[in-house]
């Protein structure tokens, strides 16, 4: 959430940011409600000042009739104050709703663009494999090997689900362990988190109200299934003042993720690229404002390392202003080359949210020479297992239908070097 003071002092900058994002938001409503709120506060404060003055006059009054007249007048003042307090609470509620719908301000270094078609490919790393046979998509490979089942998953839970069996399930487990251990060795503290959270936690991380229709939640109780570990990680230090000397705080977590994918109907419906439930390892940092730009590059490198060691060709993409996530001020995507489907597939989005989430979650930092201020938060996939597994199947497939196991994973799979038909 943006600070109302910032919006009030820099309305044109916020308008410019919304234009860069090519979105509409209730900015003018927020500015109007802010004026109403300040007017009401001034009136309440003036009435309370008058009440205090009248209280002193009542105490000094010697004449009974005069005293009763002053008391009666103050009853009217008290009633007016109560009415204004009710009005003020309603304005506060509406202002909070309006502010909650305004996205983060776009960083000045983000390339301008209307959407993903304007994202900037910064560099491509690794060699795309050249085949001496026609490569297959991962869904054909997985079903032929008996390690991915789609019909069974559909019978259990409907479309956009999948079952991993045997070496497929083992490969996913190996990926999770590899991701977690690598990040932990690079200074990230592993945490185990709830996959079910309260609405306040969804709101604090910026998922609500923007993405309400894309989230799974209990219709009767305040339970929400997380779409990413970013949600509980954002709330790990909610309503806390952190010590500057403890920052940055680096966390890594493996969780299931649940998304309704309503906004992506008709896209990537085959295979395991866009499903309702998947596994993901997330990396996250709480930093000082001065550290966040460097932390963004550090997290990008941490996710890249995994793809490099897996031997997968990938590219680094800087998101344009029109493709930025709601809470992000700047983002990089990592896209892996999937030769079976002949396309680049996003496997990580690494975002700097600046103070946007911390203001919602009320996470601050203080130091000897620093007054309490909101920390900066950063998040990124490091990495999802499904899409990476699909890229491995397609990249390491063999002409006989088998799949070689990347060297970095072999010891996690009992020294298995290949999955055979």
Describe the structure.
There is one protein chain. This protein has 421 residues and is of the alpha+beta class. The chain is 41% helix and 21% strand. It contains 13 helices and 17 strands. The chain has helices at 4-9, 11-21, 27-60, 64-100, 138-145, 151-157, 167-185, 199-204, 230-234, 292-310, 356-361, 385-395, 407-410, and strands at residues 120-125, 148-149, 163-164, 189-191, 196-197, 224-225, 240-243, 249-258, 277-287, 314-318, 330-338, 343-352, 363-367, 370-374, 376-384, 403-404, 418-419. The protein has an 8-stranded mixed beta sheet. Strands 7-13-14 form a 3-stranded mixed beta sheet. Strands 2-3 form a two-stranded antiparallel sheet. A hairpin with a 2-residue loop joins strand 13 (363-367) and strand 14 (370-374). Helix 3 (27-60) runs antiparallel to helix 4 (64-100). The longest helix is centred in the first third of the chain and has 37 residues, at 64-100. The protein starts with a helix and ends with a strand. 38% of the residues are buried.
Summary keywords:
421 residues; alpha+beta; 13 helices; 17 strands
| Distance between the first and last residues' Cα | 52 Å
Shape: elongated
Strand numbers in spatial order across the main sheet: 1-10-11-12-15-9-8-4
Largest sheet: 8 strands, mixed
Secondary-structure element string = HHHHEHEHEHEEHEHEEEHEEEHEEEHEHE
């Amino acid at each position: 959430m943006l600070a109302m003071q910032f919006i009030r002092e820099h309305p044109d900058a916020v308008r410019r940011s919304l234009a860069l994002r090519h979105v509409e938001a209730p900015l003018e409503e927020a500015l109007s409600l802010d004026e109403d709120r300040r007017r009401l506060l001034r009136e309440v404060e003036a009435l309370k000042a008058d009440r205090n003055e009248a209280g002193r006059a009542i105490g000094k009054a010697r004449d009974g009739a005069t005293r009763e007249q002053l008391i009666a007048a103050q009853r009217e003042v008290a009633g007016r104050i109560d009415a204004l307090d009710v009005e003020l609470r309603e304005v506060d509620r509406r202002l909070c709703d309006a502010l909650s719908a305004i996205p983060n301000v776009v960083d000045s270094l983000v390339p301008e663009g209307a959407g993903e078609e304007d994202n900037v490919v910064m560099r491509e790393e690794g060699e795309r494999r050249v085949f001496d046979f026609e490569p297959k998509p991962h869904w054909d490979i997985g079903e032929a090997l008996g390690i991915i089942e789609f019909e069974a998953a559909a019978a259990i839970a409907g479309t956009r689900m999948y079952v991993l069996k045997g070496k497929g399930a083992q490969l996913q487990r190996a990926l999770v362990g590899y991701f977690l251990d690598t990040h932990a060795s690079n200074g990230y503290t592993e945490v185990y988190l709830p996959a079910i959270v309260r609405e306040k936690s969804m709101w604090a991380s910026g998922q609500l109200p923007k993405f309400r229709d894309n989230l799974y939640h209990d219709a009767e109780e305040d339970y929400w299934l997380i779409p990413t570990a970013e949600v509980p990680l954002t709330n790990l230090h909610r309503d806390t003042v952190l010590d500057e000397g403890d920052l940055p705080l680096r966390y890594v977590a493996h969780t299931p993720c649940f998304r309704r994918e309503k906004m992506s109907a008709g896209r990537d419906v085959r295979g395991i690229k866009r499903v309702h439930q998947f596994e993901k390892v997330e990396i996250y940092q709480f930093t000082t404002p001065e550290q966040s730009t460097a932390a963004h590059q550090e997290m990008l490198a941490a996710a890249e390392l995994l793809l490099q060691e897996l031997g997968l060709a990938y590219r680094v993409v800087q998101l344009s202003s029109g493709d930025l996530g709601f809470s992000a001020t700047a983002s990089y995507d990592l896209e892996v080359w999937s030769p079976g489907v002949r396309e680049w597939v996003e496997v990580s989005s690494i975002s700097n949210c600046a103070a946007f989430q911390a203001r919602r979650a009320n996470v601050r930092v203080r130091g000897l020479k620093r007054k309490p201020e909101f920390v900066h938060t950063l998040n990124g996939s490091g990495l999802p297992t499904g899409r990476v597994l699909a890229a491995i199947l397609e990249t390491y497939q063999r002409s006989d239908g088998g799949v070689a196991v990347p060297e970095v994973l072999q010891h996690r799979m009992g020294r298995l070097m290949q999955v055979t038909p």
